Amino acid sequence: MLLGLLLLTACQSKEVVKDAEKEDKDNIINIMETGEIPGVNPTTADNSVSFRAINQVYEGLYRLDKDGKPALAMAAAEPEEKNGGKTLIYKIREDAKWSNGTPVTAADFEYAWKKVVDPKSTAAYGPQMEEIVKNATQILNGEMDPDQLGVKALDDKTLQVDLENPVPIFKDLLTTGTFFPQNQAYIEKQGKRYALSSENLISNGPFKLENWDATKKTWDYVKNNKYWDKKNVKADKIHVQVVKDTNQALNLYTTGKLDRIELDGEFVSKYKDDVDFHKTFTGRSIYLKMNQGKDGETTDLANLNIRRGLAMAIDKQAMVDRLLANGSTVLNGNVPAKIMFDPKTKEDFRKQNGDLLSYNPTEAKKYWQAGLKEIGKTELTIALTAGDSSLQKQQTEFMQDQLQKHLPGLKINIKTVTQKASFVADVSQDYEMLLGGWSGDYSDPLTYLNLFLTDSPGNHTGFSNAEYDKLVLGAKGSLSNDPEKRWEALLKAEQILLKDNAALVPLYQGGRAYLQKATLQNYIAYPIGSENYKWMSKAK
User: Which domain holds residue 405?
Assistant: First the structure.
């Protein structure tokens, strides 16, 4: 028995050594996410968490490189141009494969793009193609069949794209999830189960998504060995866990269970001198959305003076200084600063358009009281919906205090829900006011302004303005060949959205303060666009 126990112990010790060697060999990285992934279907995705996941497991004709510039990905070469740049012929790389071993084909792009514009798909970002890809506008409006979209597989590896006009931002658009391919045979086999768990998903990007379904708070990105550029994917596995409390994140970081965490408020001051501390700015625009009504029915927030009062009653500087302290800055518009510049003068868009809705409690009170009189009320109760992270809770409490202090007769009821439920409330327009925002998909003001077109699946506010629609659609189409007129149209559109209509309560441009282990390398986070984990690695 003693000899047997010794032999067993020796065998177990060898197994432990082997496991330790394997763990050391594998390049495993641990990072955090702000909320659960609601879904990873590129057609129906409508939130930053989903698109962040989609960017790791799928890939389009182009992928942003480390510097944020579009680089060839599924496309083998730059396209052949015909018809004055309106027709583009792409060759799909021969070594492009799905994670189940089947080839990525031109038909995968054709199928996916036609799904995106099909009104039956209720795709959140079908309007990305509006006025850009030929016939997309008519299809989205139900005037044409999706088969008439300007995309066609000429053969297995040749894709033809027809545009309404040559578009300067088209290559950037092709790096976003809306334009990623999907495998029709696999999707039809999965049916309604497709992309609801890692068991019902295939990938063509750097990673496969494993150990995930829409309820889980942890999941893994595992290196996709069928990926065409797998030699440049250094991480064997990236383990992700949802962390909504900064104290919890710090505990996980200091005990070596996370390699990178986000900081805010008092934690920034506490760790600003730490060797692992970093700070940068982002292109994330944070605002309150106000539900003016839908399906022909209006709410009290349809009153312009009520909205103006709300939009001018929050001390945004105090919010970014006290609660955030992470590099965030006050934003009095929708388009953020320091990222998009006039094509002729190179002046910053935000500087050109100035402050459209600034904090002014005196004026806010005047607008508010005028609005109450117009709707025949002396007081108003409004529910403010927000996610359940510690930071969002602090923000909503701060805004509740500010709004009730500056606007007599107003009561704000805070409605705290999960991040996933907040996304659902936004998309279904099941809210009165909602704390939200947008990071943008590409470096152009259009990515922020396109959301608020009439009946856009990204609107969800009830805002509608014919002149606004004309300017934004013109920037996507008829003005695309005149950069300066196009720029002027976008400047005017933002003025209509906020200065004239107070459709949102702009709050701040997001900053990013974080702790990151020195061993974590090539965590690529762009000012605009989803993070890119392709090159991430962990030094020994």
Answer: 283-512
